């Protein structure tokens, strides 16, 4: 299929079936596109929608985001995961205000230089937000192109990735670029899905190499699997019996960076030793079953240890690290910790 025919087929399908009702598609601006694209990285549309709406209600423009504290940002991000995205978003907003007069750059190079914005995200911001011709290559687009052209192997392989970028660049039209890029993402998300794709309704399925050769399930190849390492710890759920827990603010780096969480220990003996130093009676300590939370690069197995003090006035060392707080969705707690504390409080 010639490039023009491919573009025409994709745009014709978009005019009939494309998604136009999503929150970030209303009053589309570079800022709104940027926020949505960052949130949509590694995250499903249905999950993102309520977070996007709450985030935009609090931070309607880049200036309000830049002027906010990171605590405000991370509290609204809590539960969405991949928290480096929130840190990069906040840093980028301040750079945009300080160096670009509050306007997102309109060049691919300047956009890609901002924290958390890669080549595909920059292309989406330019094309969807400003109508500037720029190719994109998110996971959905990779899958469509790999299947249509019969490109085998894992798309993350540098050699294959370079080939896909060349193809995306060649296929991206000069007119209706926003609709085309949105159409390619929609096509991958709703028709050319990972499993059970709707090939019979695909606008470019007639000359799809993977479909013609019966290799839909094999193309593209999945990422080579690797065994995730396991990290283990004990978490102290110290509660005063009135709904508050002693929580510590994590450093703004690493997983759960900037969030509130429970004190962590390497072994159960360390928990008893810590409580002893703080003159906390832990004779009623309750050991809950081990839980697992999986990050992108490792499993975390943790054992919650519940201690009920009956008082929130015990003197705890390093007071700058911790505070007695009632867990809820406004203070920036990791989703598995919020779930755990809610269960304990009940």
UniProtKB/TrEMBL annotation:
Keywords: 4Fe-4S, DNA damage, DNA repair, Glycosidase, Hydrolase, Iron, Iron-sulfur, Metal-binding. It catalyses: Hydrolyzes free adenine bases from 7,8-dihydro-8-oxoguanine:adenine mismatched double-stranded DNA, leaving an apurinic site. GO terms for molecular function: purine-specific mismatch base pair DNA N-glycosylase activity. InterPro entries: A/G_AdeGlyc_MutY (IPR005760), DNA_glycosylase (IPR011257), Endonuclease-III-like_CS2 (IPR004036), Endouclease-III_FeS-bd_BS (IPR004035), HhH-GPD_domain (IPR003265), HhH_base_excis_C (IPR023170), HhH_motif (IPR000445), MIG/MutY (IPR044298). Its cofactor is [4Fe-4S] cluster. PROSITE patterns: ENDONUCLEASE_III_1, ENDONUCLEASE_III_2. Binds 1 [4Fe-4S] cluster. Residues 39-190 form the HhH-GPD domain. Its EC number is 3.2.2.31. Adenine glycosylase active on G-A mispairs. MutY also corrects error-prone DNA synthesis past GO lesions which are due to the oxidatively damaged form of guanine: 7,8-dihydro-8-oxoguanine (8-oxo-dGTP). Belongs to the Nth/MutY family. This is Adenine DNA glycosylase. It comes from Methylocaldum szegediense. The gene is mutY.
């Amino acid at each position: 299929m010639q490039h023009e025919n491919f573009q025409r087929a994709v745009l014709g399908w978009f005019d009939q079936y494309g998604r136009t009702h999503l929150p970030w598609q209303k009053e589309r601006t570079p800022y709104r596109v940027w926020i949505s694209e960052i949130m949509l990285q590694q995250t499903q549309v249905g999950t993102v929608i309520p977070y996007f709406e709450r985030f935009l209600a609090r931070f309607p423009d880049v200036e309000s985001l830049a002027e906010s504290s990171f605590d405000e940002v991370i509290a609204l991000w809590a539960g969405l995961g991949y928290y480096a995205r929130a840190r990069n978003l906040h840093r980028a907003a301040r750079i945009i205000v300080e160096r670009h007069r509050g306007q997102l750059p309109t060049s691919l190079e300047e956009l890609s230089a901002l924290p958390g914005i890669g080549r595909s995200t920059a292309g989406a911001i330019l094309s969807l937000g400003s109508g500037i011709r720029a190719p994109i290559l998110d996971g959905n687009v990779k899958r469509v192109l790999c299947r249509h052209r019969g490109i085998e192997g894992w798309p993350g392989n540098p050699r294959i990735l370079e080939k896909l970028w060349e193809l995306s660049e060649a296929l991206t039209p000069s007119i209706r670029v926003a609709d085309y890029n949105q159409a390619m993402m929609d096509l991958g998300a709703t028709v050319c899905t990972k499993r059970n794709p709707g090939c019979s309704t695909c606008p470019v399925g007639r000359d799809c190499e993977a479909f013609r050769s019966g290799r839909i399930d094999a193309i593209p190849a999945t990422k080579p699997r690797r065994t995730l390492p396991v990290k283990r710890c004990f978490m102290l759920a110290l509660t005063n019996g009135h709904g508050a827990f002693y929580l510590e603010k994590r450093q703004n780096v690493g997983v759960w960076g900037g969030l509130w969480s429970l004190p962590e220990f390497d072994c159960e003996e360390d928990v008893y030793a810590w409580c002893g130093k703080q003159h906390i009676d832990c004779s009623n300590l309750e050991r809950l079953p081990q839980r697992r939370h999986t990050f992108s690069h490792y499993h975390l197995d943790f054992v919650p240890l519940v201690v009920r003090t009956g008082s929130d006035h015990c003197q705890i060392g390093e007071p700058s690290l911790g505070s007695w707080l009632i867990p809820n969705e406004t203070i920036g707690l990791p989703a598995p910790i919020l779930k755990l504390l809610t269960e304990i409080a009940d």
